Amino acid sequence: MGGRLLPLFAVLLAARLTVGDPEGPAHVDGAPPSKIAVVGAGIGGSATAHFLRQHFGPEVQVDVFEKGEVGGRLATVTVNHNDYESGGSIIHSLNLHMQEFVKQLGLKYRRSVAGKTAVFNGEEMILEETDWYLLDLFRLWWRYGISFIRLQMWVEEIMEKFMRIYKYQAHGYAFSSVEELLDSLGGSGFINMTRRPLSDSLLELGVSQRFIDEVIAPVMRINYGQNVSIPAFVGAVSLAGAQNNLWAVEGGNKLVCSGLLKMAGASLLQAQVNSISPVHSGEALQYQLSFTTAAGTGSELYDIVVLATPLQASVDSGLQFQGFTSPFDELPGNYHSTVATIVHGYLNTSFFGFPDPRLFPFASVLTTESPDLFFNSVASVCPVNISAGFRRKQPQEAGVYKVFSPQPLDKSQLKTLFRSYYSVQVTEWQAYPRYGSSQGLPPVELHPNLYYLNGIEWAGSAMEMSSVAAKNIALLAYHRWNRQTDMVDQRDLMHRIKTEL
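The line above is the sequence of Prenylcysteine oxidase-like; the predicted structure tokens follow.
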């Protein structure tokens, strides 16, 4: 009988901790944490390790667990001795955390190679970029009226509000949930934008249905593999990333991740974390992580744990939560599967209405939503290392192309898009959330000193969103540990910051 009471007592104690205030009895003597674990070494996890080191100082041990490759969804594939981005490939000029990382790590901006874009509806090109900016503007105005100006003003207004996060974070303020973070930036407007379809918001703005179908939908298809029913906030993030002021890292964006881990002095463990369980010692709470490495199994105790890996059922994290009252190992929602196919070959320009490839002027082709189209986009891609004399391959030459599609391409589909090809490399990504269902935003705090980073993706999925979440969690963990409640979920921050100066 006694043997059964002990686990029951542990469960009751865990329940008491969960219901209590979120700071919890983490530590008694005011000592700093000795060990922190981060699970996942993508951009979110590696940025978290970096920010944790900044806030907790040099003494704390930071262990980062990664079962696959450092970089996560930032990855490259090799074609003909050159590497090409197969995952996250573009960064916006307003992404201040990513810019700061590149600067601190001494990385270089990749030289951009100009290329024109077109939109294909399955039968013909309905929108074509030219060499003349004013002509492009005139064509947009002629076809869509002032829809594109209304859209531009809307995106700029949202970005301007979102940029407040950098000021808040520079002053050390943190948020205990994604809702609190969004509310501090754009009030109930931002929260509502996570709950209503993009198309509804744009129609209300006075953007025409034709513009939504022919311009907005193709951008959503290439960025998120989904349609205009995705939430308006995600759509705004996506549209901000469709502008001209974009960049990438010379040598591959994944270099940011490995660089941040090194700069943080974090210990990287190539390991699959199998389980996490709370361990109580007097009033102190720690977490036991059990994991498997190439050498065998092991376990460690940590004061703070950050989970920087998706916990949805569609992504098999392999992670089990044991001894918790809330079963949060499977959060609601699913990730969306997108296939990136890197093809070395000759593009079939006839398919797009250009029988002579020498007359095909486009580097990338986006697509509208059409039942006949089996791909979201096809683009001529440049290697991650661009030499001074590099030039983009002409369509009559064999080039390297990236095709995004909802399903892996079969032989006949490849033959439709390419006259012939030398190699095909397929990466199937659980790339971003499947947007549209109203499951709400996942929690940031799962349990005292146990944090979940990837919930931010349900508001918007991008490298910078993960970096913002990483900074927020590092600040939140620091303030929770030191019981600095006045730095968490504060109202009217713009006014506060002005009076602080």
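Note on the example: Residues 266 and 360 are 49 Å apart (CA to CA). The chain has a mean pLDDT of 89.
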